Amino acid sequence: MPVSTNHDDWMRRALALADRAANEGEVPVGAVVVRDGQLLGEGWNQVIATQDPTGHAEIVALRDAARVAGNYRLSGATLYVTLEPCTMCAGAMVHARIETLVFGASEPRAGVICSTCQLLDEPWYNHRVVWHGGVLAEESSARLKAFFQARR
């Protein structure tokens, strides 16, 4: 993928991965990890396919990025994800030393960045992740709504 510093461009890449998740019968969430304008890792929800409760898009993308970087520490990297992360994924970002989180739609039930709590802002963590929400939120939200409406 070409070098880009535009949040919308990287979120569009994450949205394409969310589409892949939906096509595979998974909740449509996609994520990419970027450092210095270069794609390091990508992922989409794979909980059902892998029979793995940790198969969230963010975790898959972090694993892919760590493999590519040759290090579980991803200092200086930005994680783009189409949906506000859960507790597990927020903790993984802290442990990976992600610099910045950019997410699309808020998650009012399980999102821990700004919806149910502000987990990344807690003082006890030894690393701070800067975050920005609402990037292409409508596009992300539309995918989620369509996915769940089709299930009903």
Q: Identify the strand order in the major beta sheet.
A: 2-1-3-4-5
Shape: globular
Could you give the distance between the termini? Answer: 37 Å
Count every beta strand, where a strand is a DSSP E run of 2 or more residues: 5
Which spans have pLDDT < 50 for at least 5 consecutive residues? none
Helices and strands: which structural class? alpha/beta
> Oligomer, anyone?
single chain
Helix/strand order: HEEHHEHEEH
- The gyration radius over C-alpha positions equals 14 Å
Which band does the percent of strand residues land in? 15-25%
| Overall mean confidence score, pLDDT | 95
Instruction: Give the helix proportion (percent range).
Output: 25-40%
Number of helices: 5
The largest pleated sheet is described as:
5 strands, mixed
SSE layout and pairing:
Layout (H helix, E strand, L loop, with lengths): L6 H17 L6 E6 L2 E7 L2 H4 L6 H13 L8 E6 L3 H10 L3 E6 L24 E3 L4 H15 L1
Parallel strand pairs: 3-4, 4-5
Antiparallel strand pairs: 1-2, 1-3
Helix pairs in contact: 1-5, 3-4
Commentary on this structure:
- This protein is α/β, with parallel strands linked by helices and 152 residues long.
- The protein has helices at 7-23, 47-50, 57-69, 87-96, 137-151, and strands at 30-35, 38-44, 78-83, 100-105, 130-132.
- The protein has a 5-stranded mixed sheet with strand order 2-1-3-4-5.
- The protein is globular, with a radius of gyration of 14 Å.
